[in-house]
Design goal:
Length: 298
């Protein structure tokens, strides 16, 4: 049996970052300022600290301005909202990302809702979510948009394909389904209450797994030749004592013998998220500065 093609998200993300860097330089020449991304981190969650550091580093590497705001874990809701409002009003800031999850005493939804939709590079405000559902242009959550880019790069026209999205989170599953619907796929959203999940998945030309359960999707759930996008990031013990490794929501080894193409974990969807964040920031910058974004390269 032939092996599935490996969808190399790492290489695609590097290419996208390169195109963003070229467009960021052109933006700076036209607007007389750099595009800017502000990232707000509350508390000291180690994983969030790593994400925020990587976002800042890659923002600067792309020729954009990075503004990091680190607040103590006991920051009051009113103070966090006041910072968001200052960033909304700051003309040097095109994108605002509040790193989630926030500490338990803070109301995430209330904070996200205060981000100006013009600067909502995470695509999580009700305005962005509503515009996506209405099929209007707007800022779209980074991970599902990255998945769509990989799918279109691999398959070209998606119209008429059967797509199954496993997971219905605000961050991944729901916007992913909307994006596939906008590409004229026939979309099924599966979740923890779905009956006969393997049978549902077996219908799909495109499977997007965004569940958070290690290797849940098995080879015999897949239609031969299906394109499989594995969003899952699960840390499990490695063979070497005391070490861990990352695996996806799909049984990669088994699925590779059935699928037509598949994203690996790591090196598939993961690297796309920050690359798309930079892309979203640049798109927002053009809109905020009233500068036309030339070409369709992003
Ligand atoms: P959530 O926990 O918010 O959502 C998980 C979804 O999976 C829910 O809709 C849930 O259903 C569904 N689910 C849970 N168990 C089952 C099951 N047994 N059968 C079918 N569906 C099930 O997770 P996220 O969407 O935020 O993330 C999903 C995965 O993607 C995680 O591994 C996360 O780490 C990863 N991720 C990766 C990113 C990247 O950059 N590559 C970015 C974001 C996330 P229900 O709604 O019924 O509870």
């Amino acid at each position: 049996m032939s092996q599935a093609a490996v969808i190399d998200g790492k290489a695609f993300a590097a290419g996208l970052r390169g195109r963003v860097a070229v467009a960021a330089a052109a933006f700076e020449a036209k607007a007389g300022r750099k595009a800017g991304l502000a990232v707000v981190l509350v508390g000291e969650d180690p994983a969030s600290q790593v994400y925020v550091r990587n976002k800042g580093k890659q923002t600067i590497e792309a020729g954009m301005a990075s503004f990091e705001h680190k607040l103590p874990a006991d920051t009051a809701q009113a103070d966090l909202i006041a910072l968001v409002e200052r960033l909304n009003a700051d003309p040097a800031v095109d994108g605002i990302l509040v790193q989630l999850p926030l500490p338990g005493h803070l109301d995430e939804q209330a904070v996200v809702e205060r981000i100006s939709p013009n600067k909502d590079v995470d695509g999580l405000t009700p305005t962005s979510t509503g515009r996506l559902a209405l099929g209007l242009p707007g800022l779209v959550p980074c991970t599902p948009l990255g998945c769509l880019m990989l799918l279109k790069d691999r398959l070209g026209d998606l119209s008429g394909l059967d797509a199954v999205v496993i997971g219905r989170s605000i961050l991944v599953g729901k916007p992913m389904a909307q994006l596939l619907l906008a590409e004229s796929c026939t979309v099924t959203i599966a979740h923890s209450r779905t009956k006969n999940l393997p049978d549902v998945v077996r219908r799909a030309d495109i499977v997007v797994a965004a569940v958070g359960r290690p290797e849940m999707v098995k080879a015999d759930w897949l239609k031969p030749g299906a394109t499989v996008i594995d969003v899952g990031i699960n840390r499990v013990p490695a063979a070497e004592a005391g070490k861990t490794r990352l695996i996806g929501d799909v049984d990669y080894a088994g699925a590779s013998a059935v699928a037509g193409a598949i994203t690996p974990v790591p090196g598939g969807v993961g690297p796309m998220t920050i690359a798309v964040l930079l892309r979203n920031t640049l798109v927002a910058a053009h809109r905020n500065a009233g500068v036309a974004l030339e070409g369709d390269a992003l």
